Amino acid sequence: MAQLLSALFANCFFQTVSRRAGAGLFKSVGFGFAAGIAVLVFFRAAAVDCASYFALSYCYFHFVNMGETARRIRILREIDEAGPLSLEELLGRYGGASVSAARISRLTAGGHLVFQDGKYRAGKILLFMALAVRALRRISHGEKSNAQSQS
């Protein structure tokens, strides 16, 4: 278990350092992944640690990549802050009509947005993800929800 945790730490650390040093997303993820592999090789980790490392590294990549998909996040934040918006209102706030239309189409197809009564609303999948992120924030940072922090 210590080998696995050391490898994961090395992965996160070297990915972050290389990204801040100017490496692109995929290169920095590759550097971090290779650093973790080096730790596993150094410790001669068991096969289960190696398999776990690969699986967790895959999850970490998608966690990091999620932050890089800012357009989708921005669209979702616009809807979260303003409430339901028509397509015209959303495109007016966001700009880049063709890019936005493609993103909205994908978000709708994936169930993240629901088009109803001429407006887009957050879908059940998005609401579940928002609740999960809020719970993780509370656990990891001790942050209160917006309703609790405003009272």
Structure explained in plain terms:
This protein is mainly alpha-helical and 151 residues long. The chain folds into two domains: 67 residues, no CATH class; 58 residues, Arc Repressor Mutant, subunit A, CATH 1.10.10. The chain contains eight helices and two strands, in the order ααααααββαα. It has a two-stranded antiparallel ribbon. Strand 1 and strand 2 form a beta hairpin. Helix 1 packs parallel to helix 3. It is elongated and about 60 Å long. The model has no long low-confidence stretch (mean pLDDT 81).
Spell out the blueprint of helices and strands.
Elements: H1 2-20, H2 25-43, H3 47-68, H4 70-82, H5 87-94, H6 97-109, E1 113-116, E2 119-122, H7 124-141, H8 146-150
Antiparallel strand pairs: 1-2
Helix pairs in contact: 1-2, 1-3, 2-3
Supply the key terms:
single chain, two-stranded antiparallel sheet, Arc Repressor Mutant, subunit A, 151 residues, elongated, 2 domains, 5% strand, mainly alpha, 77% helix, 8 helices, 2 strands
Summary, kept brief:
The chain has eight helices and two strands; from the N terminus they run ααααααββαα. The chain is mainly alpha-helical and 151 residues long.
Radius of gyration, taken over Cα atoms and rounded to an integer in Å: 20 Å
Low-pLDDT residue intervals, each spanning 5 or more residues: none
Global geometry? elongated
Run of helices and strands: HHHHHHEEHH
Helical run tally: 8
Termini Cα gap:
43 Å
What percentage of residues falls in helices of 4 or more residues? Answer: over 70%
Structural class of the secondary elements? mainly alpha
Beta strand count: 2
